[in-house]
Structures are given as C-alpha cells and as structure tokens.
Amino acid sequence: MEAVVMDMALSEQERRILEEIEEALRRDDPELARRVSGYRARRRRPLLLRGWFIAVVVVLTLVLLVLAVALA
Fold it and tell me: Comparing 16 with 47, which gets the higher pLDDT?
C-alpha cells in the first residue's frame, strides 16, 4: 500500500500505529487494501480541476461584465 502524504503532521508514535493498522488491513483484507490505497490521490485531481474551472468562469464573467459596462 502506498503511503499517502497528509497535510497534518503525525507524531512518530501515531505514524507507527497507522503503519500497524495499514499492515493489518493488507493482511486481513488485501482486496480492500488494494482498492482504497489510491483513493485520496484519485479524488484530489477532480477537485483541483473543478477549482480551476470555477476560477476561469469567475474571471470570464468579470471580464464580460466590465466590457458590458464599458460599451453601454
């Protein structure tokens, strides 16, 4: 299972406990471990693209608004 980089820092003890939990999951249910191992990495990209899309729409709307006021 790949390690997932998180935004919050974990203590050494918390990291060790998390590794033990991950190892137990791989041992007890390898299929589930395989399916969830890349969940966060796959989930992050669509959210990032959605954020860029919203930013582009907002900028284009502001540009059109400024043009409409300038031409009126």
Answer: 16
d(CA 24, CA 7): 24
Q: How far apart are CA 64 and CA 26, in angstroms?
A: 54
Tally of CB atoms within 10 A around 57: 10
Contacts of 67 (CB under 8 A, 6+ apart): none
The residue whose two tokens read 């190892």 is 23
As a residue count, the chain comes to: 72
Average pLDDT over residues 40-57: 74
Indicate whether this model's pTM tops 0.90.
no
Mean pLDDT of 18-46: 78
Alpha carbon distance 33, 19 (integer Å): 13
27 and 64 in contact (C-beta within 8 Å)?
A: no
Pairwise CA distance, residues 3 & 37, whole Å: 8
